[in-house]
Amino acid sequence: MSIEHAVHPLLLGEAEVGNALDVFWSLTTKGGKVTVPILAFLVEGGPHPILVDAGMRSPQRAMDVHRLGRHSQSDEQTLEAALGRHGVGLADVGTCILTHLHYDHAGACEQLPNATFMVQRSELAAAATPIGPKTLEIGSGELFYDRLDVAALVCDLWDRVELFEGDVTPFDGIHCVLYSDTHTPGSQVVYIDTADGTLALVGDIIRKLDVNVEQGIPPGLFYDLEDTRRAMADIGRRADVIWPTHTPSVAELAR
């Protein structure tokens, strides 16, 4: 019988982003911006505390380097403080599974001195050599990857990086499924067995359940339309509960 894990959202800051990120090809009459949470997830019940994603490196870097809207992180929203509310220290985290390597998911890896970092090989390759034009106004010309995050993984943290080649079950009741060329080239969803059924931590493949899952309309940022639509449908079939990274209702569970 599989282990039933407990999963806790961790609120690690907030970001002001354009509504275009939520809308397929930006086909909408609604412009403007919205403030969304930046979340990571603490998983308990395994051999040690497990973290899924790690938040951003710093709000100032998100604004200065990536030329994004207002970002913030209070003292209570640091990774150390958020983990501490569950009695977990930075050094206690034994594994950090990264859904993908965008700046707001892989920025705090260096704060975890004992963690093994699990990521898809195709994602690390894409992050190291992003295909975006340097002339993009936002995302630092690197499609929201941060070169400092990549450098940490391939240098100082390299001995603690475990690269996946597709679907992997790293722990009993925790399943990582690769969805290539969706939100990023190597995005993976972490499916976790819980008392409420299968919980899917989807990164940014899904941003809004009603639009992306129920209506089958992709969010604004994806690499391949067919792969993204298949991924959303597959997630809907597999999961009993879906937690996107930037959904306010999920963030409320962390407060």
Please give a structural write-up:
- By secondary structure, this protein is of the alpha/beta class.
- The chain is built from seven helices and twelve strands.
- It has helices at 59-64, 79-84, 121-128, 147-154, 209-214, 225-238, 248-252; strands spanning 6-18, 33-44, 50-52, 71-72, 95-97, 116-120, 161-164, 168-171, 174-178, 188-194, 197-201, 241-243.
- The chain has a seven-stranded mixed sheet with strand order 4-1-2-3-5-6-7. A five-stranded mixed sheet has the order 8-9-10-11-12, with helices on one face.
- The radius of gyration is 17 Å and the shape is globular.
- The mean pLDDT is 94.
Pattern of helices and strands = EEEHEHEEHHEEEEEHHEH
What is the number of beta strands?
Answer: 12
Major sheet details: 7 strands, mixed
C-alpha termini separation: 32 Å
Class per helix and strand makeup: alpha/beta
Strand order, sheet with most strands: 4-1-2-3-5-6-7
Mean pLDDT, to the nearest integer, reads 94
Shape: globular
Helicity, as a percent range = 10-25%
The helix count comes to: 7
Low-confidence stretches: none
Strand content is: 25-35%
Rounded to an integer in angstroms, the radius of gyration calculated over CA atoms is 17 Å
